[in-house]
Structures are given as structure tokens and as C-alpha cells.
Amino acid sequence: MDKNTWIGFLLIAAIIVGFSMLNRPSKEQLAERQRIQDSINVARMAELEAQRLSDSLQLIAGEARHTQTLSAEQQQERIQAAYGTFASAAQGEEQWVTLQNEHLRLTLSTLGGRIERAELLDYHASGDSINPLCLFRGDEASFALTLITANNRILQTSNLYFTPVETGASNKAVLRLPTASADAWLDFIYELSESYMVHFAVEPHNMQTELAQNVNSLELRWQQLIPQQEQGRKFEERYAQLQYMLVGGDMEKLSESKDDSAKESARVKWIGYKDQFFSTVLIADDAFSSSQFTSTMQGRHSGYIKEYTTHTSVPFDLTGKSTTGMRWYLGPNHYHTLKAYDNDVEREDRLYLNKLVPLGWKIVSWINTALVIPMFDLFTGWGLHIGIVILLMTIVIKLIILPFVFVSYKSSAKMRALKPQIDAINEKYPAEKMQERQAATMQLYQQAGVSPMSGCLPMLFQFPVLMAMFWFLPTAIELRGKSLLWAPDLSTYDAVFHWGFNIPLLGDHLSLFCLLMTITNIVYTYITMQSQATDPNMKFMKYMMYAMPLMFLFIFNDYAAGLSYYYLVSLFFTIFQTMIFRWTLDDKKMLAEIEANKKKKAGKPKSGFMERLEKMQREQQRMARENAKKANRR
Questions:
Q1: CA separation for the pair 80, 84 (Å, rounded)
Q2: 611 shares a domain with 493
Q3: What is the mean pLDDT of residues 325-352?
Q4: Nearest Cα to 76, choosing from 94, 65, 64?
């Protein structure tokens, strides 16, 4: 190898070494990574130890029941050896404590000190108009903190019995975990606010001698099954999702369509177990760390949509000088309810729970928050029926996009009026002279004041508005349980026929609003096709134009009836607009306007754009001629 090659190799090696040194983690980063790994290992050990203790306790109970080989004293000795200072809490009788306000009723269990049942008093499950909607009950949810005792016993709070402590307040409950020492205990404190938020605190009292001295965090395991609450399972699955927000505001989520899992080394502010219209959210006062998330799809006939599991850790001060604080949000995915928790809150402390409501991509979400939701709030605030509200919203949206639709239709009418002249150009210039044909066509457009793009751009402007309604209506909890004509619930499909078996793409039912929308769309397509001159050789495209509305029947059959109703009403207004445009913009008037425009532009200098375009076309023609000459010489 020559000298330059050696120098090149040396430079590459120097760059690699320098890059490695610059990106080498600091001592603090290495320590944090080790702490995270240690936390994960502790969590795994805790699960194994907790399972071992649970099996041991069951064995003791089984022996006592069936063989009677162990005396009460021997049983107590075994429990003492397994649970140490928490032996008194290893056995007991489960009791329940209820907290309630006008929106939420919680049932707390002394076994594990957890929320055993959460009911939303303002809502009902689909098909049940009597009982409050229950987010979870019994074994559908579990919550446990891992405790490491001073003599290295690893326990989970879910296996221990707490004792209710009288607080004298109707909205507050204290569940106390006793120890062998009379003046040492661990309190789980629940305090219900006026809305759907529950404050939860873990407070140790004189636990320095009962728990391991090196404990500065608590491992947390939270699991929950999400019951099917709505009629349309397929649609509910689409919106059920595990979401979490990192400290700083970045949102992350697991897949909603398949089993998924994730490990998160960054600090997490909150974790949301989300359904289509309701969520259970665990919020850290500080942050969660070393988090692992799992989302598992459930069987179609199981009665559940998904199962979510979280393994994470929270800071813990053994001395009790600072409290391990969290909050539970147990309520609806209602935009204003969730947004209200950020009112009068500094930017860096905001929760952004309103991101649990899916409102579409960035520009579509902006239209929803700036236009659609305020308009919806205005009309519903007047006390109008939900069907009238959607009708008025349709009218307003149609008026907003009317100028764009008019420009698009006018451009289409001009193109239709120019078709005889364009056909004449096509006859004059055969396909072999494509560049001359294009030049003549562009000259005709320039003289007539017509731009082929003027019909497409207005459609692009109105597309985000239409998409905003597509995202808003299926996720608007205000539609849930609201009836219109034959549809008992506008938030789900309005089936009028059930055939008891599944048809691919269509399902096991037929939704009437969707069917009417499809028929109206076919009628609109027919009206549109009648006003357009079609090439006899393009019959396939004509059939495709009719096939598209038919596809909507399969696409929207499972969607919310409110969305199909909106499209139905919107199509009626579109047909009405089209008829008015036809009466005011007939072909003779358009042709006369085009001829007048030609005379106005006659003799006027061409625009800079047209001059550059024609120059490019002349250059292309010149190059094409030269290439043709070269080919002939060969």
C-alpha cells in the first residue's frame, strides 16, 4: 500500500477512536444504567419471591384443612418465617371501603389496599340503562408494590391485608399495613376530588427498621383487563390502546391492532389504559422509571378487548419525610374534562391528558380543536338535539368550503366548455407530436384564463376539514347513547339487519345510515357523470366511479352511525350545491366568458411563467429533433 492509503487508514482509525471517546457514557450515566438494571432484576426477583410465598401460604392452608398435620402454632411459625415483620398482615378477612362523589364511586379492598371497583355514575355500558358503567371489578385489575424487609423478605402488597383507619372525611380513606412493631406502619391514602381524579399516596411511618435501608424506590406492577363496553367490538378495538407520556410531553403508545410490548428507560409522567371512550390513567407526582409495558389482545368472545400490564418503579423515601404521590384518573375520554386538568398550570407541569382523545394528524387535530369542537360546543350548548347539532355543523362546514368548491366546479365547467377545442388540437397534432400538442393546449389554457390545477387545489384545501369530521365524530363521547330516528346510539353502528354469520369485509349486520349514504353517493356520482363528457374508450373508468361509493358500504358499515349520518346530510347539500352551480354556470355562458377572456388577453404580453414554460417546451422540441437526427444517422 502507498503512503496515501496508510494515511487514510490512520485518519479513519482516529475518527473512530475519537467518536467512541466522545460518546462514552459518563460515570453518572453508567451508574444510572446500573441502577435501572438492578431495579429490573429486583422486580423479577420480587415476582418470583411473591409467587413462592403465595404458594407457601396456600400449602399451609391446604395442610391445615385437609391433613390437620400442622398445629396453629406451627402454622404461625411458618407464616412468621415467610412474612417477617408483616406476618400479622399475611392473614385476615377482606373488607371494603367506599368513596363516592357525583361522578365516581370507588370500592377499596383491604386485601392489597387497592381499588377493587371503579364505577362512573354518569355513564352506562352499552345495552344497560340502569347500572353505572364499571371500568373494572374484582380480579379484572391488580395493583401491587414490592416491599423488601430488613431481613431480606421480598413481599408484594397484593398478598397482604390492610386495616381501614377512620378519617372522619367522606371523600378520604386510609388503609394501613401493620407490622410487628406497634408504632411502625405503611399507609395507602386515597382522596377523591370533585371530578374523576383520585389522589393516592404511600406514606411510611417509622419503617426504617422494618424495611431494607437501601430502598429508595418501590417496584410497581399494574395489570388490567379492559371489558367490552360498546356494541361495536371491531371499532372499540381500534381505539383501545396503552399510551404513556414521557417527562417533557412526548407521547408514546403500543400497537392497537396486535400484541405489543415496550421497554422505556426515560422517565414517564403518566400511563394510560385507554378504551374507546374511557380511560384509567396512573399519574406520578414525580415520575416513573425503568418501565416495561405490555398490551395483549383478548379473544372475540371473552368479553374483554385487551389486557394491559405495566412494570415500573416510583421514588420512595423510607424516612417518610417526602410522600410517594400518585394520582388516578378514572373517567371519560372527554376533551374538555381532560384539558381542564391543565388550567392554571405551568407549562412544564401540564399533563396533556387531552391527547388521549384521538383527533387526527397535526393539521387535522388543529382544525378539530380550533373549529370543530368549539362549533360543536356552541350548538350543544343551545340544548339542541344531537341530530340537529350535526345538521347545523354540516351547513357551517359547507359554507366554509363553498368558495373552494365553487372554484373547483367553475374550473371543471371551463374545461368541459373547452373540450371541443382541445379535441381539435388533438386531431391536428397526433400522438407522435406530443410536445407540439402540449404547447398548443397550454396556449389555449393561457388565452382562455384556465388552469388545469385550479380544479385540484381547492379540493386539497377542503380535504383537512372533511378529515377533521372523520376523526371527531367517532371519538366524541357526547354522541354515546344519543338516539336519532331508528339509531339508538350514534356512537356505534345502527344495524337494521342481522344475519348471524360473518360476511368478509361487511360483517354480520347492515347499518341503515351507511346504506342510505351509499345510495345517495351513487346518485351523486350519476349526476356528476352526466355533466361530464366521457371518452367512449374509457368505460372502465366510468364503472370505477360507481364502484367507489359501493366500497364505502363495506368501509363504513362498522363505523359510528353519527359519522354516516353526517356524510348522508353532507351529500344532500353537495347535490343541492351542484344543481345550483349548473343553473348559474351553463356551458354557453362559460364559453362566452372564455371567448371574452381571450379577447382581453389578445396582444397583452405573456406572463413570466408562461414565457419560461414556452421556452422550456421549445428547448425540449429542439433536443427531440436533434436526437431524432442522431438516430437517423446511426
A1: 5
A2: no
A3: 93
A4: 64
The answer on 395 and 329 residing in a single domain is no
Query: What local confidence, expressed as pLDDT, does residue 14 receive?
Result: 63
Q: Note the pTM of the prediction, 2 decimals.
A: 0.78
Nearest to 227 by CA among 82, 128, 149, 100: 128
Q: Which residue has the higher pLDDT, 275 or 8?
A: 275
Top pLDDT among 249 and 34 is at 249
Residue 66 lies inside a defined structural domain of this protein:
no
Q: Cα torsion for 350, 356, 358, 360, to the nearest 10°?
A: 30
- Set of cell numbers at residue 230: 360498546
Separation of first and last alpha carbons in the chain: 46
- Record the cell numbers describing residue 70, joined without a space: 400442622
Domain containing 150 — which CATH number? 2.70.98.90
373: left (phi over 0), alpha (psi -120 to 50) or beta: alpha
E-assigned strands of 433-527? Answer: 495-503, 507-511
- Cell digits for 412? 371543471
What are the tens digits of pLDDT across the range 73-95? 777 777 777 788 898 888 889 99
For residues 329 and 426, the answer to whether their CB atoms sit within 8 Å is: no
Residue 456 has pLDDT above 70, yes or no: no
Structural domain span for residue 625:
604-633
pLDDT 10s digits, 131-173: 899 999 999 999 999 999 888 888 999 999 999 998 878 889 9
In terms of domains, do 572 and 622 share one?
A: no
The reply to whether 106 and 132 lie within a common domain is yes
- Across the chain, mean pLDDT equals 81
116/193 Cα distance (integer angstroms): 18
Determine contact, residues 220/200, Cβ cutoff 8 Å: no
Structural domain contains residue 108: yes
- Amino acid present at 366: W
Q: What distance in Å separates the CA atoms of residue 560 and residue 556, rounded to the nearest whole number?
A: 8
pLDDT attached to residue 457: 59
The better pLDDT of the pair 608, 289 is held by 289
Same domain membership, residue 351 and residue 439: no
| Total number of domains in the chain | 3
The whole-angstrom separation of Cα 516 and Cα 564 is 9
Residues near 57 by beta carbon (within 8 Å), at least 6 away in sequence: 79, 82, 90, 159
Tell me the C-alpha distance between 632 and 62, whole Å.
100
